[in-house]
Amino acid sequence: MDSAAVPCFVPEELIVEKAVEHTDLAQRILTRFADVPIARVEDAQQIWLQAQHARVRHEWQGKVLLARQRGPFLRLCPGTKKHICCLYQNLDVAAGCDLNCTYCILQGYLQSSLVTWYCNLEDLYQEVDRELTSHPEHFYRIGTGELSDSLTFDPCTHLAVDLVRFFRTRRNAILELKSKNTHVDELLEVDHGGRTVVSWSLNAAPIARSEEAAAPDIEARLRAARKVQEAGYWLGFHFDPMIDYPDWRQGYRETVDRLFSAIRPEQIAWISLGALRYPAAMDEAIRKNYPESTIVLGELLPGIDGKYRYLKTMRLEMFREMVRWIRGYSAAPVVYLCMESDEVWHKAFGWSPGSSARLKVLLDDRVRSAPK
Amino acid sequence: MFKREFRLLEQQKLELGDQQFWVNNPLSPAHLEPSIRRLGLLHPLVVRSRGTNFQIVCGFQRAKVAQHISLEHLPCFVVEASDDWQLFLYSLEDNLTIRSYNPIEISTILHKCGAQFNRSDQQILQEIAPRLGFGQNPRILELYSPLQQLDPRWHQGVADGSFSVEVASQIAGLDQSAQQALFAVYDQLRPGKNLQHELLQFLQDCARIGKKTIAGLLAEGELADSLQDDELTNAQRLDRFRQSLRRKRYPRYSQKVEDFNTILKQTKLPPTIQIRETPFFERDLYTLQFQFRNQGEFDDALAVLGNLRDNRLIKRLEELHG
């Protein structure tokens, strides 16, 4: 879908937990969507429970719950056992997404399309501030793109700008806004201090069309990235999940070519690569939610962490080609693998960070200072 | 509770063709016949007056046997009730006092609730599902309702427990030719329930990958051959069918397994020495195991292993990992 054709998300119904109704974020949203039906609930838990029992995933499509985040906002990414992970911190400002990508891992966590926006932002800022100031020696890469897309709801919440401002002066942290959407205009006006990476998930164009059908197309994402680059931000790109299909070489090569014809490599902080993988239970969810999708027809086999992955030799082939194409353009960005073993790193790249901690250092060092 | 009156009714006055309250499957009450012949009907039927005849509410199978053995009079409770839904619930409870329902009967009950008594899904979940032992879990509707679409041969197999309810429910969503082709395979090979699921999943996937129908897929190549090979026992046929299907579903992985086995075969290792790969070749690690009973066998094994260094075995195994 082209960016011009991507409408901003508009909730069909707002469900407000009373405890957050008077927060700044809730008021901002309620004012913005004054004509949208509103229901008030004492306890958001009852809505989450109802949504968990949805018979059809799309039953709750368009409904947004404004709720209080019960647990911590900041969580270490669980990664996956016996693999090298990047020790990322997730900042859960929302749960759910309107882009409905067929492979989305959220299907494994959330039984319905209900979207939750956590509105107790004062708690969020206090919590992050406390964490960053109490461990000044530790560097944090913090992202909002784990349980949602970092930018897709921004025209409703305007949260990205708030977060960019919050991180602007933090010396031991960097914020990553990870998205497939193109709502970047507000970011262009903000003083970000080089403390935010705006990153896009990219894929081969035919895969983007079939499996990310509600998201802006690759060209639109790269146009948005170019605007953000001109505003001096660090950029990131995530080729994840890479999907095996007959013309994958051509498809991914073309996207790499487009990326480097649109973006200056020096400003790219990192490019991650990850092949399609999911827990066994996700297979059933994808088949049920997206019966037309062919991604489940790939040769996916259980790996040592129990997740289904392509045969190792297939993944190696994909990663080797990608690194070759990327390095053909630039040695600047850190290129890394998401959730792969030391062995796969060695075979695909000819070297390995050896541990999650060393990969973290590599990525941290890349963004300790603002992009040149 | 309905007002009811005990009467001995003429068998001919019972409307066996009226199946408004019937949910039994299969309707083959042969098991009741010896008892009824010997002792008569121990439990009266429940019927409702309809003009000069009587509509059966509970006891279809008993009435069927009575007709078969020409029993002239049957003990019945005649109920006065105009509320069909309440009578249907009564008949459900009556059956539940003596047995549980099989999956096809559950499917029929759910179907009748909606189609005949206009109950919404929500009402079915609240009023019926708990009576059938499912709490208010909506899964009962997803799983059991589709079974109505299957033909009587499938019904028989599901009712007697030969076929998995989950698998049958999925098959019910397929077209008639697929249902028939799959029945022929499952009826012939008699796979266990876990394997039924695997075979169905692989067949559906292979059909989508090859852009073929399931019936078309089953009629060609290795799959058809394995079903038609009269030299094999049924267990061998099932194994061959399954292996053929796995090769079709995972061609690259199957090729790797074949390459691995070929390398080992060419190496001509004695049966006391074994080399194993990690599951799905995910790690570039092999396990070597050898057995010995005495010094002589131990020395022999070491000699064989020493020779392996010269015949490129290790190199070839390494290459399998890319």
Task: Determine the N-to-C terminus distance of chain B.
Answer: 75 Å
How does the helix and strand content of chain B classify structurally?
alpha/beta
Main beta sheet of chain A, described?
Answer: 8 strands, mixed
Name of the CATH first level of the largest domain in chain B: Alpha Beta
Radius of gyration of chain A: 20 Å
Strand content of chain B: 5-15%
Quick one: how many beta strands of chain A?
16
First CA to last CA of chain A: what distance?
A: 33 Å
Number of structural domains of chain B: 3
CATH architecture of the largest domain in chain B: Alpha-Beta Complex
Within the largest sheet of chain A, what's the order of strands? 4-5-8-9-10-11-12-16
Largest interface: A-B, 20 and 19 residues
Contiguous runs where pLDDT drops below 50 for at least 5 residues of chain B: none
Q: What is the helix content of chain A?
A: 25-40%
Question: pLDDT under 50 segments of chain A (min length 5)?
Answer: none
CATH homologous superfamily name of the largest domain in chain B?
Conserved hypothetical protein from pyrococcus furiosus pfu- 392566-001, ParB domain
Considering the chains and any ligands shown, give keywords for the structure:
A: 372 residues; alpha/beta; 8-stranded mixed β-sheet; 5-stranded mixed β-sheet; 19% strand; globular; B: 322 residues; 3 domains; two-stranded antiparallel sheet; 7 strands; 12% strand
